[in-house]
Amino acid sequence: MRLSVRHTTIYRFDAPMRFVTQSHRLTPSTCTSQRIVAWEVGAEGAVFGASFVDGAGDRVTTMTVEGPVERIDVTVTGEVETFDAAGVLRGHREIVSPRTYLRPTQRTKANGALGELAAGALAAAGEEGDLARAHLLAAAVAEAIAYAPGTTEAHTTAAEALEQGRGVCQDHAHAMIALAQSVGLPARYVTGYLLTGGEEGIGEASHAWAELHVEGLGWVGFDPANRCCPDDRYIRLGSGRDALDAAPIRGVSRGGGTEAMDVTVVVAAQQ
Amino acid sequence: MYDGKRVRPAYAKLLDWVESTSPEALSQKQRQAEALFRRIGITFAVYGEGGDTERLIPFDMMPRVFTEYEWRRLERGVKQRARALNAFLYDVYHRAEITRAGIIPADLVFRNEAYEPAVVGIDPPAGVYSHIVGIDLVRTGPEEFFVLEDNCRTPSGVSYMLENREIMMRMFPDLFRATRIAPVDDYPDRLRRTLASVAPASCEGQPVSVLLSPGAFNSAYYEHSFLADQMGIELVEGQDLFVQGDFVYMRTTEGPKRVHVIYRRLDDSFLDPLCFRPESMLGVPGLMNVYRSGGVAIASAPGAGVADDKAVYIYVPEMIRFYLGEEPILKNVQTWKCADPSDRKFVLENLADLVVKEVHGSGGYGMLVGPKSTKEQVAAYAERIKGDPAAFIAQPTLALSTCPTFVDEGLAPRHVDLRPFCLVGREVHLCPGGLTRVALKEGSLVVNSSQGGGVKDTWVLAD
Question: Is the confidence at residue A125, as pLDDT, over 90?
């Protein structure tokens, strides 16, 4: 499928800022499930630089805006040819050891309830391999945390989301990571775009899911929110140990004001 | 100091001097030394004590002495270790051959809190990750040195080495005239050159280095300002630096000035709020991106701490064999990993005879010195080990060498350790001296200044 993306993030400052610095993970890499046809990240008045590909294969770029600045529009436009690889990440160049993804973060730390959920999900399983176990964990997360936008916040942890039983894709992904790590499967957070519409897709065009490292297959994506593995409706943007680590935009604004942020993402299938 | 019953020749001249000086004159000298320290203002903040957070580290005017012959062997050993630790850091942030070869367990590296995935794949100039390596040593016999721990992040204490020497030279000019003692005062210049030697390839002309400090509230701030001053480089805090385009700049009265090398005395997690702790106000936003794209060098590299982890320590002799193909010159202290069931059993059964440390701890906090502890303390510590075994390692209590030290009753032996400072840039250099720490309490083996230890000057005599 050929997908077009238009992703705009508008920052408004109620008092002008002196200096704004952002780190962007806003450029998808080519792999067997996606080919980048065109991609551009821009912001008027900004300086881009210090760009590199990190150990996990993600392109990271730095953006700064010198003040006084009251508004910044970060615009991403692109076109990607996608293929259904049943969630399996192939042809993606990375060198970081999967074992580093066994270490939880504050957001993905498993507590007793998450551990029990994982154990319960696998109790019925026999001598199945990692892939089957991963599917069982994904189903358990989807079952335990209902999709309910607006019920959680950016800093909500996996444990908190499970306790209240509601959340969004970020919470599903965090819970999935916690469950996987608690049974010894490396897991990470993935950000990207999703073609929604129709009855199939829930969540927003700006999406997140988890990847688990499965012996023999490598990294495999699981989207508990949609009870599926990523297919050709998905564009994979970048990864990290949790939502903060993988965030498409991380920024610090220095100055007196407070910040309001507006995000719009439109993903469309090209004819 | 003593070689059997005989005074080691290295100390002979010193003892002559002590014996020919009246006790009154000696104690007057000691007071004079303390007054000098106070005037210079070297203090050290002690954690975990309320009220006055800064106090003077007790200085003992009796130096610790090495002969050149003794030092040469020690020097080879320390340099060997510093090279192996850097080779290990390069390896674990690239192909990790050492874990593939099964020499170090992969989980010990990759699941280590000090392992930093954000620096995987980076090639720092000259392949150096840890530019200042402080190796803590103890001596147990004439030819026997044991390494207690490695410090690959930001080993502190070098300002004491320099100030101790300065004060000794002021107080005892005659001794320095009569004895050939290797100078240490070129250390700041050596450090400055080491930093300049690892400037990124994109640097044209004279590299600009800065010392990045968390600020005046940090317990080692004195050392930060002292070293920056001695090196003739700027002492900066995070807010003095900013990132633009591909580089890091320093704000100056003449406008922005590009910075090539950052000697940071700030922990990894505070370095860059866009990569590590987002709430950090001490760091420089975007610094890691510039570092990763080759625009700036950071000494020591973020993630260097995985090499000085106390559980990784056990494998340093293996690292030396693996990377350098050499036999280790300095010995490791036998170490039991409480994470290992059979080791743990042994540790719990012999707790009263062992020293137990927290794997990620430092500064002598949270450790148990079995032979010096009460039954209750030992029992309580056993519970801590059982609660989180992987957080602890244990070592035998060593028969540490002693050094004559002035105490209330006169000159008496006290246990000492040594931290020499090894600089690693394009070249490897060991400063001939170091920080000798002394346990001032009789019989005590804990030399940390935070636990009531003192310091001494360290002399390396020319043959």
Answer: no
- Statement: the pTM of the whole predicted model exceeds 0.95: no
Whether B243 sits inside 8 A of A47 (CB atoms) is no
Hey, is the C-beta of A146 within 8 angstroms of any chain B C-beta?
A: no
pLDDT for residue A189: 98
Q: Closest Cα to residue A261, out of A249, A269, A246, A271?
A: A249
Distance between CA atoms of B388 and A2, rounded to whole angstroms? 52
Task: State pLDDT tens for residues A205-226.
Answer: 889 999 999 999 999 999 998 9
Q: What is the DSSP letter of A257?
A: -
Question: CB distance A22–B275 less than 8 Å?
Answer: no
B285 vs A252: CB contact, 8 Å cut-off?
yes
Residue B47 has a pLDDT of: 41
Q: Where in chain B is the domain with CATH 3.30.1490.270?
A: 336-396
The reply to whether CATH 3.20.20.450 applies to domain B336-396 is no
Name the minimum distance, in Å, from the CA of A100 to any CA of chain B.
5
d(CA B276, CA A190): 18
- 8 A C-beta contact, residue B92 and residue B120: no
* pLDDT given for residue A201 in this prediction: 46
Q: What is the pLDDT of residue B52?
A: 43
Burial B231-267 (b: 16+ CB within 10 A, else e): bebbbbbbebbbbbebbbbbeeeeeeebbbbbbbbbb
Chain A: closest CA distance from residue B313 (Å): 20
Tell me if chain B has a CB within 8 Å of the CB of A59: no
Residue B6 has pLDDT above 70, yes or no: no
Number of domains present in the structure of chain A: 2
C-alpha angle B317-A99-B82 in degrees, rounded to nearest 5: 25
A28 and A145 inside one domain: no
Estimate to the nearest angstrom the gap between the alpha carbon of A107 and the chain centroid.
Answer: 14
Q: How far is B271 from chain A (nearest CA, A)?
A: 13
Instruction: Locate A205 and state its tokens.
Output: 């065009």
Please, what is the Cα angle at B452 between B449 and B226, to 5 degrees?
A: 30
Question: B285 and A96: CB-CB below 8 Å?
Answer: no
Which chain A residues are closer than 8 Å to B110 by Cβ? 97, 99-100, 102-103
Q: Which residues of A touch B118 (CB under 8 A)?
A: 54-55
A184 shares its domain with A145:
yes
Contact residues, chain A, for B296 at CB < 8 Å:
none
Q: Show residues of chain A in contact with B113, CB under 8 Å.
A: 103
From B286's Cα to the closest Cα of chain A, the distance in A is: 7
Domain of A36, CATH number, reads: 2.60.40.2250
| Distance, C-alpha A108 to centroid of its chain | 14
CB proximity B120 to A under 8 Å: yes
